[in-house]
Amino acid sequence: MSKNSREGKKTVSSIGTRKESSLHRSLKFFYSGDYGVTETTVGNYVCDGRTEDGEIIEVQTGSMGPLREKAGILTKTGKVRIIHPIIAEKKIELYDCSGGLLHRRKSPKKGSAWDVFNALIYAPELCGLKNLTIELAIIDIFEKRINDGKGSWRRKGVRISDKCLSAWHGSVVLSNRKDYYQFIPFKKNEHFTVRDLGEKAGINVSLARKTLYVLSKMGLVERTGKRGRSFVYKRG
Fold first, then answer.
1. What is the distance between the alpha carbons of residues 234 and 189, in angstroms, rounded to a whole number?
2. Is residue 104 within 8 Å of residue 95, measured between CB atoms?
3. Quick check: 28 pLDDT over 80?
4. Residue 180 has pLDDT above 90, yes or no
5. β-pairing, 80-95 with 132-147?
């Protein structure tokens, strides 16, 4: 199914779209649905979209922190769905200032559903909000970069010009506390450390630590003691 094909079926306001990537635009059109609207005002907020049934759509590609206050207020008016893309594969094209292609390559980094905890670390309370669903869109993207000296020092002046959806692999829907138990690959009352979680889940220690922080805030795991210098947890 083409995600971009829906764009011709909507009337879109220009509010808040000036710096919007093609990826963000594709996701908001798709999740708003054929008969929904985009760039719609709800109270004092401009939202990415609203479905025909009234569900508010917010596409958040980075940290969930900026949505803490907004989501808390919007969920009091009805259902809200936060769409968070998980980049399974990224292909990069680098251009010079005149538009000439310098090279193409595939990023070695591959995302997984666990990456949502990088986004939730600054807003774990979102997971417990009534009327809130977080949906992880598992996708591939194409990223266009321009070597014009206007980008960050980390990329040596190379600027990211746009990000586009290139493939869709489904989604993971997190609507209530029970849905987060899939991120605790241990039996009830089984004890484990951050490193144990990292090894079992195939993620690095930093991400495992963020995962346990969020799950602890949700009351799904609890700290029970220490094993050497490491804290020990168990499933709640």
1. 5
2. no
3. yes
4. yes
5. parallel
